[in-house]
Design goal:
There is one protein chain. The chain is an alpha/beta fold. The chain folds into 3 domains: about 80 residues, Winged helix-like DNA-binding domain superfamily/Winged helix DNA-binding domain (Arc Repressor Mutant, subunit A, Orthogonal Bundle), CATH 1.10.10; about 100 residues, 3-Layer(aba) Sandwich (D-Maltodextrin-Binding Protein, domain 2), CATH 3.40.190; about 80 residues, D-Maltodextrin-Binding Protein, domain 2 (3-Layer(aba) Sandwich). It has 10 helices and 12 strands. It has a 5-stranded mixed sheet with strand order 4-3-5-12-6. A 3-stranded antiparallel sheet has the order 10-7-11. Strand 3, helix 5 and strand 4 form a beta-alpha-beta unit. Helix 1 crosses helix 2 and helix 1 packs across helix 4. This is Putative hydrogen peroxide-inducible protein activator. Keywords: DNA-binding, Transcription, Transcription regulation. InterPro entries: LysR-type_TF_proteobact-type, LysR_HTH_N, LysR_subst-bd, WH-like_DNA-bd_sf, WH_DNA-bd_sf. Pfam families: HTH_1, LysR_substrate. Belongs to the LysR transcriptional regulatory family.
Length: about 290
């Protein structure tokens, strides 16, 4: 029998509130969502935890036992939290993002972290999605809306893509492209390039930075997000925006963690930063298209 702590916390909220509606106000979750969590917990224990009636939810004897154990754990967790606060350890806020977004955040870290800010920020960069639900990061910048019920998402805008080539390079007789290998090949931009220009891919790399550097060196054209390509003076757009690669920008956090002061502070600054530069991300400024 394996319990999820999130289910236990919601069970305690419903028990203390005496019903789903009151607990929904307290937790910020819908009554329907709370009901699903309670049903899932009852399936685990194999019996009812509440007597349901028009007057509300009343604990069964089994539910009373579970509540007593849950409150003991909750008290222990609260004591542990107070102990950690006494250590005066700065809270760590981990931001997960893809390689290019991580680069952008690193370049603008002064907008996210201040010397007088009583917290630490860690960038968790990579193509693989970091599991926020299991607290492997406090927040993430993703290109799709989260569908997990325990995650909260805020749409920030969109990201545009185009082909880029060396700004000072001469045109080639035949178009040449730079592809990717390994885990990079699962990226949508990599799949688009293979579907449309696989016969003209002349070189490949296993990381995004190398692809950009080869494009800047005049080897060939590379698919890049416009907020990277348009900011690099060594590169020029060699195509119109690629509509098939346009993605959304979402800030994703765990429902239970997003109101913690440190997380809220970083999230607000992150939203302000990305929205301030949204014209760059969406490439709304007209750029000169110069064929490679």
């Amino acid at each position: 029998m394996k319990f999820e702590w999130d289910d236990i916390k919601l069970f305690v909220a419903v028990a203390e509130a005496g019903g789903l509606t009151a607990a929904a106000t307290k937790t910020g979750m819908s009554a329907a969502t709370l009901g699903r969590h309670i049903s899932a917990l009852e399936n685990i224990v194999g019996n009812s935890l509440f007597h349901r009636s028009p007057r509300g939810y009343q604990l069964t004897p089994l539910g009373e036992d579970l509540l007593a154990h849950a409150q003991n754990v909750s008290n222990s967790m609260s004591a542990l939290q107070r102990w950690s606060e006494q250590l005066k350890v700065k809270p760590i806020v981990r931001i997960s993002a893809g390689p290019w977004t991580s680069l952008f955040l690193a370049q603008h870290m002064a907008d996210l972290w201040k010397e007088d800010t009583d917290l630490t920020i860690q960038l968790v960069s990579g193509l693989e999605r970091v599991d926020i639900g299991h607290r492997h990061a406090e927040m993430g910048v993703r290109n799709v809306r989260p569908h997990e019920q325990w995650l909260a998402g805020r749409k920030l805008g969109a990201v545009a893509y185009a082909l880029y080539a060396c700004a000072d390079g001469s045109e080639h007789n035949e178009p040449r492209y730079i592809g990717v290998t390994d885990t990079m090949s699962s990226a949508r931009s990599a799949q688009w390039l293979e579907q449309n220009h696989s016969d003209n891919v002349v070189l490949r790399a296993s990381d995004s930075m190398s692809v950009r550097e080869m494009a800047a060196a005049g080897i060939g054209q590379a698919v890049l997000p416009c907020f990277i390509g348009d900011q690099d003076p060594r590169l020029k757009r060699s195509s119109e925006l690629i509509d098939a690669l346009r993605t959304e920008h979402w800030l994703v956090m765990h429902h239970d963690e997003r109101h913690r002061p440190a997380i809220r502070k970083v999230a607000d600054r992150l939203v302000n930063l990305l929205q301030h530069h949204q014209a760059l991300f969406e490439a709304t400024k007209k750029a000169d298209i110069k064929p490679a």
